[in-house]
């Protein structure tokens, strides 16, 4: 196995068109942070590189929808994302952005180098062009009917109804989302990276030299290579992004998939003048933490770019995760079906580690997994509180009770004591082995098993009973318990940094490193520990219900938005229409019709007379609320008996997608009897 002098860890650049949600955390940022914190505790040279991806069509779409500039969009969300990561404890050495001057310079130079080496193909192709808007259309600026499921509203790159990947030219009846007009096809020149040229290298480098990669990563790469690689455009016709730095490329920018990974390099340049040591020295280990949707770009495309440039190292591993679902449904930004990090930090103040724990214990490492609020609550209450928190609290409280907070001097160790102390290093070794192999679920399970060991040890030895019958045995028990506690304060730091720091403060432990982990004596006899405080607290049902209600509201809103208006009724003639006499009127009296659910009896001043109208609005309005309200009423509707009451007219109501009724009323008060025309 290659021995490296340093490690460079990069994390996928999130699009700066919205906040961060738990899917991002579980897939990329929590595992990357755990790994980097572990290496730092080992005293290794390691950098964690991140930043916002601020180019591409999603940004321009957001800007267009909100009536602002792309720069306004990225400035807003870059700030939100960076703050959320910081508050959550993702310990970036640098968190940069692809709209920075350093990035523009780095990306431009990278393109120029490849272009000067003849590594690109230049070719013309037909692409859709909006003649009214005067611009070529990116995939997401084109919508039409899906050729597979025949649903309308498919984008030029994907149908969100059936999930099929598309080319814009596949769409039936395509229309520009800018002008609403059908686009025309027009020739345009672009630069292409010939991935097929790099296929022999990729076959050897991935399929033969990196069989240790995770099965989901290796399998996806093999599938792409087996199908045969094709040239891929590195430029696009857009006005937002890094301009293509050659003559004759006006109105063209670097395609975001080419531009974004160079952001790792530019961010490192921003961080340190020694950036080349981390990117060009073969004794540096490069790791990409990403989600499964980015595997091809980081394992096939970016390595081909680096190989073509010639002076950069290649990634040694790409420990990509699968997707995290939410309450049985795919996380969706557009449908607001997500747990947003900035909202979580408001609703669960100082509970960053609870979410870190749950997302790690339930990480989608080899298959998609599901986050549920009930599981979140159960893991907090039954594991963090009842196992870890309970053991730590008992160890510290009893030490203060019996020995005034001083670590007691142990007596003779029994076989059980020695077995327990020996087991500490076993759990540390298992945790470390899992971390080294990017198995973070297994790692946190083994770390928590050390807390389980401590709980079992206290339960089996029962020092609170022995203090009355065998006082001399208790110092040894408490000594052993405190050594487990101190080990936990180090072992859990990569996973639960806020809680581990709190525990080290309680134990009066100075700065520590991984070499102490597994030691039988971390706290010497007579070491004074501080007062105990709860590491975790129970999460109540009401807090979980609040979160479930949030999601329920999102689902209701989505269903309402998805409901289409009823089809138009058959045409009527103008003569039929003018027969209707609609007037303004005011409700004078209102009462619910007995033994009915929907009916309300109204007395309405129509300006012509005062008449009784029976209306089916009782489910939506209280009688007292609508007295004095001005309404629109069809006054020449033939009288009809309803529940024995003669109704003389009809109140006009609008019904929204979820069945709610709203009065059709004049926007300002008018004289009763005014005609509605």
UniProtKB/TrEMBL annotation:
<feature type="binding site">
    <location>
        <position position="333"/>
    </location>
    <ligand>
        <name>ATP</name>
    </ligand>
</feature>
<feature type="binding site">
    <location>
        <position position="162"/>
    </location>
    <ligand>
        <name>Zn(2+)</name>
    </ligand>
</feature>
<keyword id="KW-0436">Ligase</keyword>
<dbReference type="InterPro" id="IPR015413">
    <property type="entry name" value="Methionyl/Leucyl_tRNA_Synth"/>
</dbReference>
<dbReference type="Pfam" id="PF01588">
    <property type="entry name" value="tRNA_bind"/>
</dbReference>
<dbReference type="InterPro" id="IPR029038">
    <property type="entry name" value="MetRS_Zn"/>
</dbReference>
<keyword id="KW-0067">ATP-binding</keyword>
<keyword id="KW-0694">RNA-binding</keyword>
<feature type="binding site">
    <location>
        <position position="159"/>
    </location>
    <ligand>
        <name>Zn(2+)</name>
    </ligand>
</feature>
<dbReference type="GO" id="GO:0046872">
    <property type="term" value="F:metal ion binding"/>
</dbReference>
<feature type="short sequence motif" description="'KMSKS' region">
    <location>
        <begin position="330"/>
        <end position="334"/>
    </location>
</feature>
<dbReference type="InterPro" id="IPR041872">
    <property type="entry name" value="Anticodon_Met"/>
</dbReference>
<comment type="function">
    <text>Is required not only for elongation of protein synthesis but also for the initiation of all mRNA translation through initiator tRNA(fMet) aminoacylation.</text>
</comment>
<dbReference type="InterPro" id="IPR033911">
    <property type="entry name" value="MetRS_core"/>
</dbReference>
<feature type="binding site">
    <location>
        <position position="146"/>
    </location>
    <ligand>
        <name>Zn(2+)</name>
    </ligand>
</feature>
<dbReference type="Pfam" id="PF19303">
    <property type="entry name" value="Anticodon_3"/>
</dbReference>
<dbReference type="InterPro" id="IPR012340">
    <property type="entry name" value="NA-bd_OB-fold"/>
</dbReference>
<feature type="domain" description="TRNA-binding">
    <location>
        <begin position="576"/>
        <end position="677"/>
    </location>
</feature>
<dbReference type="GO" id="GO:0006431">
    <property type="term" value="P:methionyl-tRNA aminoacylation"/>
</dbReference>
<protein>
    <recommendedName>
        <fullName>Methionine--tRNA ligase</fullName>
        <ecNumber>6.1.1.10</ecNumber>
    </recommendedName>
</protein>
<keyword id="KW-0820">tRNA-binding</keyword>
<feature type="short sequence motif" description="'HIGH' region">
    <location>
        <begin position="14"/>
        <end position="24"/>
    </location>
</feature>
<feature type="binding site">
    <location>
        <position position="149"/>
    </location>
    <ligand>
        <name>Zn(2+)</name>
    </ligand>
</feature>
<comment type="similarity">
    <text>Belongs to the class-I aminoacyl-tRNA synthetase family. MetG type 1 subfamily.</text>
</comment>
<dbReference type="Pfam" id="PF09334">
    <property type="entry name" value="tRNA-synt_1g"/>
</dbReference>
<dbReference type="GO" id="GO:0004825">
    <property type="term" value="F:methionine-tRNA ligase activity"/>
</dbReference>
<keyword id="KW-0479">Metal-binding</keyword>
<dbReference type="InterPro" id="IPR001412">
    <property type="entry name" value="aa-tRNA-synth_I_CS"/>
</dbReference>
<keyword id="KW-0963">Cytoplasm</keyword>
<keyword id="KW-0547">Nucleotide-binding</keyword>
<keyword id="KW-0648">Protein biosynthesis</keyword>
<comment type="subunit">
    <text>Homodimer.</text>
</comment>
<dbReference type="GO" id="GO:0005524">
    <property type="term" value="F:ATP binding"/>
</dbReference>
<dbReference type="InterPro" id="IPR002547">
    <property type="entry name" value="tRNA-bd_dom"/>
</dbReference>
<dbReference type="GO" id="GO:0000049">
    <property type="term" value="F:tRNA binding"/>
</dbReference>
<dbReference type="InterPro" id="IPR014758">
    <property type="entry name" value="Met-tRNA_synth"/>
</dbReference>
<dbReference type="InterPro" id="IPR014729">
    <property type="entry name" value="Rossmann-like_a/b/a_fold"/>
</dbReference>
<keyword id="KW-0030">Aminoacyl-tRNA synthetase</keyword>
<dbReference type="InterPro" id="IPR004495">
    <property type="entry name" value="Met-tRNA-synth_bsu_C"/>
</dbReference>
<dbReference type="InterPro" id="IPR009080">
    <property type="entry name" value="tRNAsynth_Ia_anticodon-bd"/>
</dbReference>
<keyword id="KW-0862">Zinc</keyword>
<dbReference type="GO" id="GO:0005829">
    <property type="term" value="C:cytosol"/>
</dbReference>
